[in-house]
Structure formats: structure tokens, C-alpha cells
Amino acid sequence: MALIRHFIAGEESPAEPTGAVRTGPVFNPATGERQHEVALADTAETQRAIAAARAAFPAWRATSLTKRADVLFRLRHLLTERKEELAAIVTSEHGKVLSDAAGEIGRGLENVEFASGLIDKLKGEYSEQVSTGVDVHSVKQPVGVVGCITPFNFPVMVPLWMVASAIACGNTVVLKPSEKDPSASVYLAKLFREAGLPDGVLNVVHGDKEAVDAILDSPDVSAVSFVGSTPIARSIYQRASANGKRVQALGGAKNHMVVLEDADIDAAADAAVSAAYGSAGERCMAVSVVVAVGDVADRLVPAIHSRLDALRIGPGTDAASEMGPLITREHRDKVASYVTGAAAEGATVVADGTQRDFEGDGFFVGVSLLDHVRPGMKAYDDEIFGPVLSVVRVDTFEDAIELINANPYGNGVALFTRDGGAARRFEFEVEVGMVGINVPIPVPVGAYSFGGWKNSLFGDSHIYGPESFHFYTRSKVVTTRWPDPVHSRIELAFPGNS
Ligand code: NAD
Predict the structure, then answer these.
(1) What's this model's pTM, rounded to 2 decimal places?
(2) Per the database record, which ranges form the Aldehyde dehydrogenase domain (predicted)?
């Protein structure tokens, strides 16, 4: 069985596959087959990757902005050229359908494109004559070694959210991808190398808590970007910030889609089905709750239900499949338990995907629709992260906003309506970081930054886009005087602005 290895200072490690290292299984979720082993780094191996990044930092931060941009331009070209190959790797370890895998590469490309405009983004400021004969300017300098820790659900896009901007700013990186689908990160690191990135600037270590803790505790790591579930995001934020690092830790989500009585019901039903069941619901921006206002539910629930039988669920490699399996058997069973337990809690199970049979040992489950769900039920309170859509019925628009604002998560939210006034009020009052008006999955384009509020993000910087150039640099302000020697004198008073 092939061993997926670390990529440190431009080389795979351990040099030869060996039985001496701790490993974890990598499955093909469509077949249930254990297809690879992945090396799990211990503290020493992780420290070796950090040391490689540290050693590469002085030369990379001194590399001209034009040369850094060149690497990103070439990477963009290579990623476009190899899209299919990379999508196949994603599908084989994650399970999502090939078109969806290609879609995430496309969204990741936006981050490479944004970062390749680094010359513009790294501009400082200049103020002439702030005092007589005194000028001030500011520069943005890299922070040093950045630790990037990523989740399983976007094995290409989320690493690119972080790595493209971190490297553009002159930092070096240790990337710790999800151990469930680690191959895409190694592929990306090799592609960066082919694009001209010097060895050691981007290193990949695989692993679990031990590797992550080594990153969080290392005095040589200056900043940490994390994306994953809320409990881990919270603990990463606490540990990394206690160790004096700047940290952004993006967590889980419970995304609501409000449908008002004036909305186009067919368009809303199409959007709900796409956003709830795409990628088997394993998206942090998936819609998991439809909030039906007034009498909307009586029309919307049948409209959603009527679309479910036609969804084609199967291996991601099959061009006919629209939805693939879940990431692991355990996760599939956990997702199913929310549907099985829903009726006992008082919900109506409109469609039960757990009853659907699939051939073989893949981690498949059918799509489920729950109606009359309320806060306090597990299906509402937990992030299920699977193809289960809950409908909560509320009487008024105000009730919908109150429900959402009381939820501990605040990643994405959507409103479906034809009423511009309601949309404006929604945007003003809703306590969520990313809002879609008649757009169910409002992932910002690469020129904006991505981030939720409340338990969906710990730290103050959103990820990718303009805020990433803030997060991955520290500013230095330089005050300059070139005195005319004729006017030089001793002056002990606090400098004023004369
Ligand atoms: P996860 O939290 O289990 O794992 C994320 C990363 O943390 C992985 O690299 C993993 O190896 C590491 N990790 C796991 N347990 C750890 C521990 N105890 N200590 C240190 N590190 C640990 O998340 P996941 O299951 O891979 O991904 C799904 C979650 O990610 C969902 O909750 C989803 O909402 C969230 N997510 C959020 C966003 C966002 O932008 N907010 C984007 C994608 C995914």
C-alpha cells in the first residue's frame, strides 16, 4: 500500500516508505477500500519542517515582488493545465463528484489570481512634511513562518485560501492538511515547486494532534491559519494566541436560508436542494436549515421533496453522479443518527435517506428532509455536515432574524425574496459574516475576504482577499528627517509637530 509522505524542503520524507513511522488510513469513500497509508508526523518531524521554513525565510522575503508574482502566475497556469489530474485525486480521497472537485480548484484559482497582484497589495503609505523637514512612510513586511492547518472538505481550495497570500507576502509555510485526504496538498506543493517556488518555502507535514501541537507550540512559527470544526478552532485559537502568535481560526457553521412569502418558490426550492445536498452537505457554507416564513412551508416543503428522487447519488468518478459518498463510515453513521432520532424529538421526517440501499461498501447515504424542526432538537443544534436539510417554520420575518441571531454560529446566511426593503433590513440586522440575497451559498469572490462571525471564526481577520494581506504582514512605520547640518541642535523636549 502506497505511503503518502511529507514534503519538506522540496523532498518527500521519509525518503523511503518504511514501516517505522506512525501512519493513518486513507480511504476511497466510494468503495470503502483502504487505499493508502499516510505518514503521521511526530513532534521532531514537524519541527524539521518548521526549521526548513525558517531557513528558507530570509531569501524568500528578500525575493523581489516581481519574482514572487511570477511564481504565482506560473502556478495559475499549471493549476489550470492539471485541473483534471488534481480533481481526480480529490475525488478519489474525498469522494465528491469530479465536477465539484474541479469547481473547488476553480475557486482556489481565484485566490492565486488575487495574490499574484501582490505588488499593488503590498504598497505602503507616505506622508510628506508631517513636521518641518520630517516625512513618514509605512511598509508591510512578512511575519515569518506561517502554520496552515486545513480540513478534509476542501483539500485544494482551503490550502490555497491560505498559502497563496502567505507566500505572496514573503512568508514561508508549514501546511498540515487533513489526514483524511492528504494527497492534494503534496500535489499542490510539487506544483508550486514546478512554478519556481524555492525549496523550503512551502512544506507539507501530515499528521494529527501531535503535529498540530508542535506547530502551535513552536517559537519559530509566527502566525497560524486554521479552518475546521468549532471545538478544534476554539482550542487552536486559545493555544496559539497564548503562545504569542497571531491566529485566525475558522470554525463550523449552521447556515440558514430564509424564504419569504413573496419569493419564487421554484427558484427557492432549486437553491435549497443545490446548497443542502451538493458535496453531500459537507460544505461549511452548505444550507442546513430552511426558515420558512408564514405559509411558505406548505408550498416549499413539497417543492423541495419533489426534487429529491431525481438526485443521482453514486461514485464521484461517474459523470452521471451529482452527489458522492461521505468522508468516512463513522461520519456517515453519525449523520444517519440525526435522521433516525429526529421523529422522537418531534420533527417530521419527510424524506429518509438512511433507508436507501447502495451497492458495495462505499460510505453513501441518501438525502433527508426534516420538517417542523425547532431549536433544542439535535438536528437543529448540531452541525450535521451531511445531506440532511431541516425546515424550521416561523410566523414572521422578525422571528426569522431572531432565530438566526440567537444561533451560536454565524458563517453564511441567505434570504430569498423579491422585496428590496426586506433584503436591506436583513442585511442590516442579521449577525452573520456572509450574506446572500437570492444566492444560497454566498462564498465571496477572491477580491473580498471570507469569514463568519460568532463561533464560526476566532480571531479578527477573515481569510483570503484583502484581509489576508493584513494578516500575513506586519506594518512598520518609518519617520525620517534629513537635517540640514546648519540647523542641527540639541532639543530635550518631547518632539512636537512644528
Ligand atoms: P476538524 O476540526 O476535525 O479538522 C481540521 C484540522 O484540524 C485537520 O487538519 C485535523 O487533522 C486537525 N485536528 C483535528 N483534531 C485535532 C485536535 N484535537 N487537535 C489539533 N488538531 C486537530 O475538521 P474536519 O472534519 O476536517 O472539517 C470539517 C469542519 O470544518 C466542519 O465543521 C466545517 O464546517 C469546517 N469548515 C469550516 C470552514 C470555514 O470556512 N469556516 C471551511 C471548511 C470547513
Answers:
(1) 0.97
(2) 23-478
Q: Where are the beta strands (DSSP E) in 360-485?
A: 368-371, 388-394, 409-410, 412-416, 434-437, 453-454, 457-458, 473-481
Amino acid at 457: L
Whole-number pLDDT of residue 417: 98
Per 3-state DSSP, the chain is made up of helix, strand and coil in percentages (nearest 5) of 40, 25, 35
Specify the pLDDT at position 20.
74
Q: Do the beta carbons of residue 4 and residue 24 sit within 8 Å?
A: no
Q: Which of 6, 156, 208 to mutate to test the pocket of ligand 1 (most atoms within 8 A of CB)?
A: 208
Ligand 1 centroid to residue 235 C-alpha, Å: 11
169 is annotated as an active-site residue = no
162 CA from centroid of ligand 1 (Å)? 15
Q: Which of 3, 247, 250, 284 is catalytic?
A: 284
- In the beta sheet, which residues pair with residue 391? 290
| pLDDT, tens digit (0-9, with 9 covering 90-100), for 132-141 | 999 999 999 9
Name the residue at shortest CA distance from atom 21 of ligand 1.
209
**Which helix (H) or strand (E) element contains residue 36?**
strand 33-39
Nearest CA to ligand 1 atom 12: 208
pLDDT higher than threshold 70 for residue 182 = yes
Ligand 1 centroid to residue 480 C-alpha, Å: 46
What would the mean pLDDT of 3-31 be, rounded to a whole number? Answer: 91
